[in-house]
Amino acid sequence: MFRFILLFSIALSYAQTITLADAQKAYLSANWAEAAKLFSTVCPQLEKGKQPECVLWTILSLSQTGRMEDFSTAIKKLDSLIQTSSPQDPIYTDLYMTKAQFELYLNKYDLSVISLRHAIETSRVSQHPVLLKVCSAIEKAYRKPEVQALCLKLQPKNDTLTSISSSFIASSSSTITARSSSTILPSSSSLTQQNTISNKKEWVLQLGAFSQKENAALLVDNLKKRKISTQIKEKIISEKTLYLVQTLPFTSESEAIEYGKKIFTPLNMEFRALKWE
């Protein structure tokens, strides 16, 4: 019994001496197997909010060891992590971007495009350069108009668009109501008048994508308290239903972006101008 306790104490002491920096150093040295082992040891010790990113590093390490067994484990871990993550999590786009690369490696081009599209739908502007590289790799192997359209969508836009704040949207009511309470916001009737100038309403601002409808409804209710009119749109991606929170439609992309900069940037909320479907 004493021997067991001693061995357990030694193992625990060893685990506590390993740091995230040690695992990252092994990764940067291309020592994939060692990096995967170190990340697996470190991840459970981190704060809950930091664990998903650490697990993703584990997945990336396993995928590069050159062993098909490790690659299969990486795929399973990735799918599991996606299942426990929400589209509102900053890491969500990275997960689907990684999934797209894995599927490309396996020559599952159709699935790779679906995963890439999902990553783009939940992405921030700051993530577009990396997504564009992934998209370009897929396009080289799978020359389809839909892939070209996705890559074009990720190309740098004009200065107005690239100036959008890249801070991530908060989903809880406490976060939203704590932001800039003195900001003067237009009433819903003003927004309605603004959108009736022309019958051709083609653009909306997307404020969030949620896997649970109640979370989307929570954001809509919080914005309604600030007299900001929004709507929930259901969209099926990768056989999953996403609930998209969007503004009422605008007559042009520039009009939508200007509204977003005026209304949502002071609230530290990210937004994306999209074609109204």
Can you describe this structure?
With 277 residues, this protein is of the alpha+beta class. A 4-stranded antiparallel beta sheet has the order 2-3-1-4, with helices on both faces. It has 14 helices and 4 strands. The termini are far apart.
Characterize this entry briefly.
This protein is α+β, with helices and mostly antiparallel strands and 277 residues long. It is 57% helix and 10% strand.
Q: Report strand order across the widest sheet.
A: 2-3-1-4
Briefly, what CATH class of the largest domain? Answer: Mainly Alpha
How many structural domains in the coordinates? 2
H/E element order: HHHHHHHHHHHHEHEEHE
| Portion of residues within helices | 55-70%
Strand content: 5-15%
**In CATH terms, what is the architecture of the largest domain?**
Alpha Horseshoe
Map the helices and strands.
Layout: H1 2-17, H2 20-28, H3 32-42, H4 51-62, H5 68-83, H6 92-105, H7 109-121, H8 128-141, H9 145-154, H10 159-162, H11 173-178, H12 188-195, E1 203-210, H13 213-225, E2 230-237, E3 240-247, H14 253-263, E4 272-275
Antiparallel strand pairs: 1-3, 1-4, 2-3
Question: What are its keywords?
Answer:
2 domains, 277 residues, Alpha-Beta Plaits, disordered N terminus, four-stranded antiparallel β-sheet, 14 helices, alpha+beta, 57% helix, globular, Serine Threonine Protein Phosphatase 5, Tetratricopeptide repeat
